[in-house]
């Protein structure tokens, strides 16, 4: 579910960026690639963790879920750095944003897909008591909030005409997701220790 949602949202979010040239929407699109990589890592971890104990791994491989969660956190931090770089570049070299309904609409559809996937995955996380599924769901929920913030920034620029708000919102997104990534890395490291 998470992989399918990530693939769908990558296209939608990059479409929104292509229509608007908003660095805030670009930051949201970059985060969609992180979602895909994290979903693939989660699939690996869940497959590995489900293997029964054997002669090599006497207690099984359930700790693979912590590696996946830590990997997801690290990917989020890398995405935050890429977003911050793009935002600072846009602050230094402003570009006009194209306003219209199509770009925000695509971003809104992508957010709805992520929210649906997150709620479904979170239910599975509770049932299976899986840190990997929980991390993936929380990451997608964070992505929904990030997208809503980016859209709010986009509309603030449209209303006020202050183009510098777009990269400032993108920097805010970068800071926000850095904390999310750090919490995932910290929790995973604690679980492994």
How are the SSEs ordered, and which strands pair?
Elements: H1 2-20, H2 23-49, H3 64-92, H4 102-128, H5 131-160, H6 165-192
Helix pairs in contact: 1-2, 1-4, 2-3, 2-5, 2-6, 3-5, 3-6, 4-5, 5-6
Helix-residue proportion: over 70%
CATH architecture: Up-down Bundle
Fourth CATH level, the homologous superfamily: Cation efflux protein transmembrane domain
Beta-strand residue fraction: under 5%
Low-confidence stretches: none
Order of helices and strands: HHHHHH
Question: What do these coordinates show?
Answer:
By secondary structure, the protein is an all-alpha fold. The chain has a single domain (2-50, 60-192), classed as Up-down Bundle (Alpha-lytic protease prodomain-like), CATH 1.20.1510. 83% of the residues lie in helices and 0% in strands. The protein contains six helices and no strands. The chain has helices at residues 2-20, 23-49, 64-92, 102-128, 131-160, 165-192. Helix 2 packs antiparallel against helix 5, helix 3 packs parallel to helix 5 and helix 4 packs antiparallel against helix 5 (131-160). It is elongated, with a radius of gyration of 18 Å. 45% of the residues are buried. The model has no long low-confidence stretch (mean pLDDT 88).
């Amino acid at each position: 579910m998470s992989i399918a949602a990530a693939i769908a949202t990558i296209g939608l979010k990059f479409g929104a960026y292509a229509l608007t040239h908003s660095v805030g929407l670009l930051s949201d699109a970059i985060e969609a690639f992180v979602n895909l990589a994290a979903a693939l890592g989660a699939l690996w971890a869940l497959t590995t963790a489900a293997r029964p104990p054997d002669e090599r791994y006497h207690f099984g491989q359930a700790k693979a879920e912590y590696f996946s969660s830590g990997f997801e956190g690290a990917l989020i931090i890398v995405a935050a750095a890429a977003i911050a770089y793009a935002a600072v570049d846009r602050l230094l070299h402003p570009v006009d944003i194209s306003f219209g309904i199509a770009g925000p609409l695509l971003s809104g559809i992508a957010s709805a897909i992520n929210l649906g996937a997150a709620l479904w995955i979170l239910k599975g996380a509770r049932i299976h008591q899986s840190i990997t599924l929980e991390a993936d769901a929380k990451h997608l929920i964070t992505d929904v909030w990030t997208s809503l913030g980016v859209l709010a920034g986009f509309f603030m620029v449209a209303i006020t005409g202050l183009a510098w708000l777009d990269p400032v919102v993108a920097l805010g997104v970068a800071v926000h997701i850095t904390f999310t990534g750090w919490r995932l890395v910290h929790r995973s490291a604690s679980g492994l220790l």
